[in-house]
Amino acid sequence: GAGVSQSPRYKVAKRGQDVALRCDPISGHVSLFWYQQALGQGPEFLTYFQNEAQLDKSGLPSDRFFAERPEGSVSTLKIQRTQQEDSAVYLCASSLGASGFERSYNEQFFGPGTRLTVL
Amino acid sequence: GNSVTQMEGPVTLSEEAFLTINCTYTATGYPSLFWYVQYPGEGLQLLLKATKADDKGSNKGFEATYRKETTSFHLEKGSVQVSDSAVYFCALRSNDYKLSFGAGTTVTVRA
User: Fold this and answer.
1) Which sign, positive or negative, has the C-alpha torsion A99, A105, A108, A111?
2) Chain centroid to CA A40: how far?
3) pLDDT exceeding 90 applies to what percent of chain A?
4) Is 60 exceeded by the pLDDT of residue A100?
5) Could you tell me which residues come within 8 angstroms of residue B82 by beta carbon, excluding any fewer than 6 positions away?
6) Do B44 and A110 touch (CB under 8 A)?
7) How many angstroms separate the Cα of B32 from the Cα of each of A47, A105, A109, B49, B94?
8) Do A110 and B4 touch (CB under 8 A)?
């Protein structure tokens, strides 16, 4: 596949359940990002990986949110003990370059998102 | 901190009408500015960008000029089509990676 893929596309969870959202970035892309998009809002930054290193997790809203990218490719965003306020679309994006790279390599390509609904 | 404010929607237009979506920003340093588009059922796509003051980004008939003096990056298209119906997001990046988005403007073009 040429683009960023995410799975599942839709997830319904009962309050208190744990969920795991997967992102497959474009092959060879060094940087990977997670964003949260609430209904009617723009995406909000959650976290940033450069290869397997999580360089910025300042946007994670609570310690219930955890992200990993153990081999520097696929990433998983995990939400523990989901709450209704976690309902949103979770977007993954990847870019070719690393932080500090020439700006032309830093265009972020977005996946279709996972729509999470917590009941 | 960084922030982006864009015109609230929804905006409804007839085909061939002129479209303007206002966007202003607050940022430290010298940000890069972007417009992203989200077509129904699809992911965010980069529409155009500008990386320094007075740059004009353009794509698919859309244009936006980076105005540092007014901290603005307004999106314009001279003649819209039904296929331009989408949600448009203004965004900035003031470091190497983190994007800050506006709330989005829904545009509907009627035939």
Assistant:
1) negative
2) 19
3) 87
4) no
5) B15, B109, B110, B111
6) yes
7) 20, 13, 16, 7, 6
8) no
